[in-house]
TrEMBL record:
The keyword tRNA-binding is annotated on this UniProt entry: no
Organism listed in the record: Mesorhizobium muleiense
UniProt-recorded name of the protein: Transcriptional regulator, TetR family
Keywords from the named record: DNA-binding, Transcription, Transcription regulation
One MF term in the entry's GO annotations: DNA binding
Gene3D superfamilies: Tetracycline Repressor, domain 2
Amino acid sequence: MTARPKAQPGKRTNDPEGLRKRVLDVAEASFQARGYHASSLGDLMAAAGVTGGALHHHFPTKKALALAVIEERVAAAVEATWIAPVQAAGSTREGVRSVFEAVAAELEQQGFVRGCPLNNLAHELSLADPDFRTALAGIFSAWRQAIADKVGADQQAGREQDTDPQRFAALAVATYSGAMSMAKTTQDSAVLRDCLNALEQGVSSARAKRRRRVLRQYKAF
């Protein structure tokens, strides 16, 4: 592999995609660390090392930049962190457990908690603009549907017959989102494992209650 020639001082390099990626990298990091409203375009341009003209060529407005971060980066993070691992797992429960444990372990190694990227922006932007709300809601919807589809696949394989796919998916997403919010507030990733245990125990308890109810109805005939 030959090395790419270095740009000569004073000469511009024609790499629009690289520039666009650099701006997205900087914006994504800033929105998560400081928030959308606290991240000025001037600060983002300085951090990315781009001019206003170059920035606005790719992102005409700050809103357009934020939507790109949501649709390209946040959606991809949910796909990589949640959807792909759950789909690849042997069962829904195994997938959900593996995600909670993997995230907890990563946060422990990292030493601090910035929170869930989707949660962070949803809390800040959902009421600020309908386009932000629609984009964020779409990611939540895809996340929930992926888990529900996995439950459906489990049911076709003869498992999880007492589980409502949509309700379980909503509970799993809500549990994780709440756990990440608490972990961010307390700067303690242990709450993820506590919430995972509560989720598993709660689902098991609900299944046992349904089975007892069905058994009583059966005996009544």
